[in-house]
Automatic annotation (TrEMBL):
Covalently binds the prosthetic group of malonate decarboxylase. The modification O-(phosphoribosyl dephospho-coenzyme A)serine is found at residue 25. This is Malonate decarboxylase acyl carrier protein. The lineage of its organism: Bacteria, Pseudomonadati, Pseudomonadota, Betaproteobacteria, Burkholderiales. The keyword Cytoplasm applies.
Length: 105
């Protein structure tokens, strides 16, 4: 198991909490909670060692697209592909009531 941590600039705290996905063969679980204004932290626990650069690239794409609300995100991964990572994060943002942009929209 490898544990990774990433930080990204963000706006105001997210408006709620959400859990999407399941930890199982080829999937992952995403837990999102409001963060501290100004940053989003992402903590990844993955069963695949040595993929820190892949996680960094995937998450950088997600958080560079637009300003997002401040969140604390925990990801528990069991070998998910980058496509599944993107899908689960999009699902979590939608469950929070939208893209969770920095302006709280």
């Amino acid at each position: 198991m490898e544990q990774l941590r990433f930080e990204f600039p963000a706006g105001q705290p997210a408006t709620g909490r959400v859990l999407v996905g399941v930890v199982g063969s080829g999937d992952l679980e995403v837990v999102v909670e409001p963060g501290q204004g100004g940053k989003t932290t992402v903590e990844v626990t993955t069963s695949i060692n040595g993929y820190g650069r892949v996680w960094d690239a995937q998450l950088s794409r997600v958080f560079a697209a637009e300003p997002r609300a401040s969140m604390q995100i925990r990801i528990h991964d069991f070998g998910a592909t980058p496509g599944v990572v993107g899908m689960r994060l999009a699902e979590a943002f939608e469950a929070l009531g939208g893209p969770q942009q920095g302006d709280g929209a």
